[in-house]
Structure formats: C-alpha cells, structure tokens
Amino acid sequence: MKRTRGTGWKNVYETLRNEILALTLAPGQLLDEMTLAERFDMSRSPVREALIRLGADELVVTLSNRSTIVAPIEIATFPKYVEALDIAQRMNTRLAAALRTDTDLKIIAKRQKQFEAAVKTGNHLAMSEANKEFHMAIAHAGKNQYLASFYEKLLSQGQRMLHLHFEYLERTHEGYLLTDEHTLMLDAIRDKNVDLADELAHAHTRQFQDNFINFMRENYTTDVALGRLRAAE
C-alpha cells in the first residue's frame, strides 16, 4: 500500500513505541537513524520525526554527541516516581467516586472488561495499555483535566516498569490481584464511597511498588540496592 505523504513517521513512531514499552528495545539501546531508515525502508527525515516525538514522550533520550538511545529506567528516582503516582492515583480515584456519572461508570466498567480480556492473552503490552485506559477512564470521571493529564503522564512513564511487575505476578502466580483490585475500585466508585476508593487506590500503588522492588531484588541485586519503601500516606 502506498503511504500518504508526510505520514511515514507514524508507523516508525508506533512500532518503536510498542517495542520500547514491551522492552523489546532495551533501556539504553542505541537507535541509529541510518539503521532505522534501512529497516523501515524510508528516508531519515520521518525517522528523525518519530524519534523527536518519542523524545517528547520521554521514551528516548538524545545524548550530547547527538546519538539517541532508549530512555533508561531510572531506578534511583523510583521512590519519587511512586510517591507522585500514589498521590495522583488517589486524587483521581477519589474524585471519580465523588463525581462520576452513570455514563462514566459504564466506560470504567467497559475498560475493566477490556483489561481482563488482555490479561487472558498474556500479552504484556496489551495489558499495560488496557491498564492505562482503565485508570484514565477513572481520571476522566473525576472531571479535573489537570490532575488527569498529570496522571496520564505518570502512567505512561511507568508502563515499562509495569511490564516487570507483570512478569513478577506471573512467576509468583498472583496475577489475579490486578483484576481483583480493579473490580474493587470499580465497586467503590459505583457506590460513591470516596474513602474506600482512596484506600484501594493507595493499596494498588503499594502493590505495584512492592512487586517491582521484589523483581529488582531478584534480578539486579549486585548493582542496585533497594530498601523497602512506604508509599505516601
């Protein structure tokens, strides 16, 4: 099929984004424009445009020598990341419980069903995308575009870490926890139980935090020292 002029970068962007989120392209891996241009059978201009947009998503980093690499997963800043995620998750979920409409509730329930279907496939990329859509449906129900935008950025930044979280859950056979927690959050929002929604959102963040740290301890204990963290109260 013939590509519409000026749209070539979209295919490069979407393909590389998926590969980065799925960890097919490892953190720190070099992304050479010429090599990518040959791979996608196009000039370097659309490849460069795709890399610029991936940079805006904070998925790639341009170094001082102008080479581009897949953005590292910054373990040292994880405590600050999870602190911000906890606050954003709790605030958006509280607002959703207080302000949701029947239409909002239907959308959240639909996103939850889609997440459950993604879990059954075992495809981590599909799972992380469906997880993000579920939580963003909650955020939109909270009716605060600033908090929702902040939350979306954090969820996007955490998708690669979520893949490691999924690996840990699968290996320990605790994958059911995610779908169960989502169902409980949905129920609290349906009942307009603000305090319970807050509590569940906090527990949801803490489960992600603990499992990610356990994964890192198992796989990178030589290079990374991680103490037990406590999510923001």
Low-confidence stretches: 221-229
Principal-axes shape call: globular
Quickly give the structural class.
mainly alpha
Most strands sheet: 3 strands, antiparallel
Q: Helicity range of the residues?
A: 55-70%
Report how far apart the termini are. Answer: 54 Å
Helix count from the secondary structure assignment: 10
Q: Radius of gyration, rounded? A: 19 Å
Residues in β-strands, percent = under 5%
Descriptive report:
- The protein is mainly alpha-helical and 233 residues long.
- The chain contains 10 helices and 3 strands; from the N terminus they run H-E-H-H-E-E-H-H-H-H-H-H-H.
- It has helices at 8-21, 33-40, 44-56, 78-99, 102-121, 124-141, 145-157, 159-171, 176-190, 194-220; strands at residues 30-31, 60-62, 68-70.
- Strands 1-3-2 form a 3-stranded antiparallel β-sheet.
- Strand 2 (60-62) and strand 3 form a beta hairpin.
- Helix 6 (124-141) runs antiparallel to helix 7 (145-157) and helix 6 (124-141) packs across helix 8 (159-171).
- The longest helix is centred in the last third of the chain and has 27 residues, at 194-220.
- It starts with 7 loop residues before the first helix and ends in a 13-residue tail after the last helix.
- The relative contact order is 0.12.
- Residues 221-229 have low confidence and may be disordered.
